[in-house]
Amino acid sequence: MQNFHLVPYPEQLVVTSGYATADAKISEKENSAFKKESYHLKITENEIFIEGDKAGIFYAHITLKQLRLQFGDTLPCMEIQDAPRFAHRGFMLDSSRHFLPKEDVLRIIDVLALFKINRLHWHLIDDQGFRVEISAFPKLTEIGSVRGRSHFGLVDEYKNNCGYFTQTDIKEIVAYAKERMIEIIPEIEIPGHESAMLAAYPEIGCQNAPVEVVTTGGIFDNLICAGKEESFAFVTKILDELIELFPYEMIHIGGDEACKRKWRACPDCQKKIKELGLKDENALQQWFVIKVQRYLKEKGKTAIVWNDSLRGDKLPEDCVVQMWMGDKDLIAEFAERGGKIIQSSTESFYLDYPYAMWDVQKILNFKLCPDFLAGTDAIIGVECPLWSERVLDLDREFYQMIPRLPAMAECGWTAEHARNNDSFIDRYTSIDAYLQTQGICGAPKEYWNISPKLAEQDMDNYNKTIYTPEYSAEMERQEAMMAIEREIYGDER
Ligand code: ACM
Ligand code: ZN
């Protein structure tokens, strides 16, 4: 049987007889009664008819574009009824660790659109760089977006360490994405991963301690001081500007990997814990996150948090949790209360890891709803983060993304029983050839379903590290810090 080179594969495709000529007229009917993002595409000899909601019509055109890559101007007649399995099909771009400019972000958006991905989660703020202009606090980018040489495992250099997006850039990117049915979800990290923020404004950290923009990877103890009143006001002013720039329902407020060492030594944080009768620093984090979430809710926004934020008292069910690692019991409990979850398991969907660890087959075989959530409808979708410590340029970004992100798109769109590795590879190959003509090159084909021998080489390469003196000293310092954390919390992050 003919394999139609469509990724993601549609819900229902029926071949009819004949071929549509090159001059077949295209007619469209927008019908808001259609299920969200769904469409009907009917190709007959004389006419190509499309009906759907606004996004559905856009997706029908993407389907036509992919069919034309396979068949040229003469399309076989067929009828497609199509709708996504999940509402959230996302990719996370990390602009902090390395900074790719606006033009590169637009190219990434083109790739997302080609696979009907509808969310760009934009990680704009982290220890290694603050990348969005905030007019209330100009030092955030004057100081927070600048670092010199940096050291990330295999990477030791100056390239793409500095830069930020002006609000004019952001508006242009948001508009470009909107035309392609992609909502952009900005992420501001709270309360951890704040070194770049505190380098600019140490007064919102604990004890006003001086902080530098970080130049290595890892987990740091530079947290917003949750004990000071000014901290909440500072965060909400940033959020106010993000709300203006990103006119969508969701805002990501981070919440992962908050190493509480400085909170334990901070009189303001300890006073707040006592005042509120909280159990410990986890509960303080939870209190702060909920305060921010409530602020967003008043503005009509839904907060997304990494699953680490489930620790402490109960997280309200009207947050969305992005599940990446650990905390299974807490995630299950949150789901039982009706909370919604985005599936981003490190094991398959973290695209910064090498093909040796997760190749296309592994992604396609991944069960999006794990056993511990069976019987719930908690999963609202799937997302691939691509952390950029080792991603210095757009070519590397595409290498890590493609074709694993298209495989994720298939997981998010197509029914589980219809997913099949061999079929995917066959369908994807002609799309890959097209992408290459556009200068968009993913990993070579031998990596898509990687052999054990090549996986061994790939893994060796990934594990190589350049031990500059600065890198070694920083790793030692961090190891000592994390040892203190482990003494207090065991092996939990
Ligand atoms: C994460 O990877 N720290 C969410
Ligand atoms: Zn403090």
Tag the structure with descriptive keywords:
single chain; 493 residues; alpha/beta; Chitobiase, domain 2; TIM Barrel; 8-stranded parallel beta sheet; 5-stranded mixed beta sheet; 17 helices; binds acetamide
Question: Any overview of this molecule?
Answer:
The chain has helices spanning 54-71, 102-114, 139-142, 167-179, 195-200, 229-245, 261-265, 267-276, 281-298, 328-336, 346-349, 360-365, 394-401, 404-413, 421-437, 452-463, 469-489; strands spanning 12-20, 25-30, 39-43, 47-52, 75-82, 88-94, 119-123, 125-126, 129-130, 150-152, 155-157, 183-187, 250-252, 302-306, 320-323, 340-343, 379-386. It folds into two domains: 12-82, Chitobiase, domain 2 (2-Layer Sandwich), CATH 3.30.379.10; 88-424 and 437-489, Glycosidases (TIM Barrel). It has 493 residues and is α/β, with parallel strands linked by helices. It is built from 17 helices and 17 strands. The strands form four sheets. An eight-stranded parallel sheet has the order 12-7-6-17-16-15-14-13. Strands 1-5-3-4-2 form a five-stranded mixed sheet, covered by helices on one side. The longest helix is centred in the C-terminal third of the chain and has 21 residues, at 469-489. Helix content is 39%, strand content 17%. It binds acetamide (ACM) and zinc ion. Zinc ion (ZN) binds next to helix 8.
